[in-house]
């Protein structure tokens, strides 16, 4: 047999084995009580909840017909962690890789998963919508078998849960009466979409638990009374076993762990989840900080009380995880992208998030449509807009992202289309007076690991930095953003336009893709401003709010908030619903804005500033505001755990 026919026989065999998995989904609202405390509308799939697990083998095709029956919201689905090689149009990001699907319409996702295995998930990528329930797990089985032995496998999701819907929460979050950008405080932590959950186990068995944080905000600590986790994979990358008592899992991260059960079945054990309280602005008195679920050996035996870890217990630091298939540290980068994370107010008084001074603002034409319609100009990042933070990457170049966190909170960053190497992650600089950017903390002697950890979602510590590297070998339009949905809504994102010519050459957009945009009335040609004549003319593009006028100070914002509390009718509700509960609220806001009380007290022209900022400042109506006032991670009741 000739070599070529031999090869094609092998190819045929593998094609014959690949399956196509069809799903026909309708997203709609139902009233459900997930935590057993409050019923509220939740986004269901074909009337059911939770959303089904997608379970396929590597090499299989997934076809999902998604019908939007939400009535009042546009929608989309992103498949978190899936590379989407040569099919970036299936990545599900509104205004980058597709148009949203409006109510009453359907859209079909259709993609293959060629070279990935492990624990993933999918979720709406529209406006924080997945926090209302539109999310599910996505498991890709390895045709070669899992590299570690186990007897049984179980998926476990964790997330925070709000009693209010994302839309009203967003209205009060992105609001001038929340000038410090305090995120809404969740009411509970869910364990597999419920509270006080039970996991019935058999003795002397090894379980593979696929833990997936499908939340939109808080990181969680996880531990089980008298049991250990053996970590064997993170974010779809197998690792050498690492045993730990405690895990720390940010939203969007996945940990596969092995748990060996005891021989003795007389006792049940507490399966604990803890809020990362550093991420909450205030800790409401009635918040259950550590939620208890149960690992059940004997249903007739008593359920345990909550089980707390000793102070000083350390969670596993994912930086040190060693991939089972090691990949050498990539060479020195061809392209370094340095960005500073900043949270700040713009001229409308609202608190936004920035990379440098840009708060991501979606283009008028999906970036992928710009790639296809721009011809040679697709290589020039100018055409993707001045306010989208789009960066063109050359085919196969080594890219390093140096991310400096000028904020006092932690942020989990996610890169679409890749896993990256974790080259360096700086320590917490919480007690420093200001941020400590990469290269300024005297760590010149730092030696990167020879075989770095790889994952798709990585947190940066307060006022610190990280460095990640990847090879630009996946032509596509890829979002890089904070996975805290509140921060994404504030604009904490950049866009990587990877090898645009390669996209043009090897990828296409099908009719359904264009019809989806037609249904939304969105243009599918032109630059970010929708200009099809001159791709370098961005007149009319979407841009962020104007900066605060020069000379306007933070105290002006505070003054505005308090002048509002003092009198204007629409604001009185704020006082009663939220701020009234907070002791020393003025002091806390001032601390947060690095102000001294004299700044506020001596300020006699505050109304002028107010007027300059926005003549209509007092006319807005606000329905409710969260019970918190300082920005993430900067409250006084910190609990530092590392
Ligand atoms: C998908 O479900 C909808 C609503 O249940 C139905 O009308 C439609 O025919 C189904 N499509 C397919 C391809 O089965
Ligand atoms: C879980 O326990 C809490 C506290 O006892 C209770 O309020 C809640 O209803 C329970 N939830 C579920 C889903 O059982
Ligand atoms: C859905 O998209 C349409 C068209 O772009 C837009 O007018 C509308 O505001 C969007 N709806 C929501 C709830 O964002
Ligand atoms: C999915 O894509 C494949 C490959 O392009 C195509 O053959 C198939 O018809 C598509 N399926 C649907 C339902 O669109
Ligand atoms: C979590 O829920 C899924 C179904 O939604 C179930 O298959 C799985 O076994 C549950 N996990 C645990 C640990 O109970
Ligand atoms: C549990 O029981 C099995 C056989 O039933 C035995 O091989 C094993 O050593 C026991 N493990 C422990 C920790 O006692
Ligand atoms: C939650 O658990 C942590 C770790 O065990 C402990 O430090 C903290 O005090 C607990 N919180 C409460 C309210 O019990
Ligand atoms: C396990 O993790 C610890 C830090 O949490 C690290 O020091 C150690 O090198 C890791 N070992 C392996 C084999 O991953
Ligand atoms: C962001 O600002 C830094 C200086 O603070 C600069 O070095 C860097 O190039 C800027 N990044 C981008 C993407 O413009
Ligand atoms: C971030 O902080 C560093 C150190 O204080 C400062 O040099 C830099 O300008 C800040 N970046 C932005 C965009 O404000
Ligand atoms: C991109 O286009 C702008 C505007 O025409 C031009 O100034 C710039 O030099 C171009 N950049 C590259 C890399 O060609
Ligand atoms: C994309 O398709 C082209 C042409 O078939 C192929 O050469 C290339 O390797 C593919 N790229 C990826 C990342 O799979
Ligand atoms: Cu963030």
UniProtKB/TrEMBL annotation:
The chain crosses the membrane at residues 557-580. The keyword Cytoplasm does not apply. It is a single-pass membrane protein. GO terms for biological process: cellular response to iron ion starvation; reductive iron assimilation. SUPFAM superfamilies: Cupredoxins (SSF49503). Residues 600-642 are annotated as: Disordered. Keywords: Cell membrane, Copper, Glycoprotein, Ion transport, Iron, Iron transport, Membrane, Metal-binding, Oxidoreductase, Repeat, Signal, Transmembrane, Transmembrane helix, Transport. It comes from the Eukaryota. Residues 612-626 have a biased composition (Basic and acidic residues). The keyword Membrane applies. Belongs to the multicopper oxidase family. This is Unnamed protein product. Its main location: membrane. GO terms for cellular component: high-affinity iron permease complex. Gene3D superfamilies: Cupredoxins - blue copper proteins. It is found in: Cell membrane. Residues 627-642 have a biased composition (Polar residues). PROSITE patterns: MULTICOPPER_OXIDASE1 (PS00079), MULTICOPPER_OXIDASE2 (PS00080). Residues 602-611 have a biased composition (Acidic residues). InterPro entries: Cu-oxidase-like_N (IPR011707), Cu-oxidase_2nd (IPR001117), Cu-oxidase_C (IPR011706), Cu-oxidase_fam (IPR045087), Cu_oxidase_CS (IPR033138), Cu_oxidase_Cu_BS (IPR002355), Cupredoxin (IPR008972), CuRO_2_Fet3-like (IPR044130). Residues 28-143, 152-299, 360-501 form the Plastocyanin-like domain. Residues 1-18 form the signal peptide. One of its GO terms (molecular function) is copper ion binding. Its cofactor is Cu cation.
